Amino acid sequence: MKWRMLVLFTLIIGFTLFFIYWYMEQARVLEIQKMSGSDRQICGICHTEENLGFNRKNLHFPFRNWQCTSCHINHNTSKRGQYVIELDKLCQSCHPSEKLMRSSQFLHQPVSKGRCMDCHDPHGSDFDKLLIVANDKLCRTCHVMGRLLLFPNLHKPFEEGFCLDCHVPHGSKTRGLLALSQKELCFSCHFSQVGDLFKRYTHKPFIEGDCTGCHVPHGSPYKPLLKNESIALCADCHSDINERIQAGLSHPVGTNISDPWRGDYLRCASCHQPHGTENIHLLRLVKDGLCLECHPFDTYIVHY
Length: 304
Description:
Elements: H1 2-34, H2 39-43, H3 49-52, E1 58-59, H4 61-64, H5 87-90, H6 98-103, E2 106-107, H7 109-112, E3 124-125, H8 135-138, H9 146-149, E4 153-154, H10 156-159, E5 171-172, H11 182-189, E6 201-202, H12 204-207, E7 219-220, H13 230-237, H14 239-246, E8 254-259, E9 264-266, H15 268-271, E10 276-277, H16 288-292, H17 297-303
Antiparallel strand pairs: 1-3, 2-5, 4-7, 6-10, 8-9
Helix pairs in contact: 13-14
């Protein structure tokens, strides 16, 4: 019986104290709402430069100038962060995205849903563009790429966290939020490959700019960022040639056959240039010159 009375007494005291605190807070808020003056004079009663983070490197313009009511309405303690309009439309009232929406076939999900604060801090930040964390770490807070980072071959921008070298953060005309078309984007860094576009013979995915037909953009177990092991990758499209190899009707390839020219195992790319060349069948060298790279001349004559 005593413990029940003790619990009841504690609850009564607790509710009484809570009611007194709530009443005093409401009275204080009403007094503040009746006040006239600048946002700094009114909001600054509770919110100081110290606790708001005015010491950060980059400050949002209305925040820096104490234009609190550009985004917030005078609030009571029952609901924090009340805004002048719905939050998913608030940022667009100053940063209109209609042009972006019209010109972009593909939108970053936070942008399409008005969740700007998934990436940006509305008050201030020590990082550019008011980002909530450093640019090279931000994307990975949502896009978990840990498995890819374990691969032995990584695309340099991906490895160093420079996602915006290839992607745009808001919207794009290109799938994957690419900054340019795939062909333009890859050649903007790999410009040494541009000359192959003008060779007499070119690989179809290469001339069409379908770089990811063979390569992956982030990380791979295979050099140079191939989607699959080199021989298996070629066989995905050239199944007829693969059948001939399996039947022993074509030059053998395989991880158990040494390639003395390249110092690795013999693969399709040992003889064929995968982008473009002046030689038919995308051969690296003309006719017998290619064979003689691996087969000594006397062996070549005896064989034939």
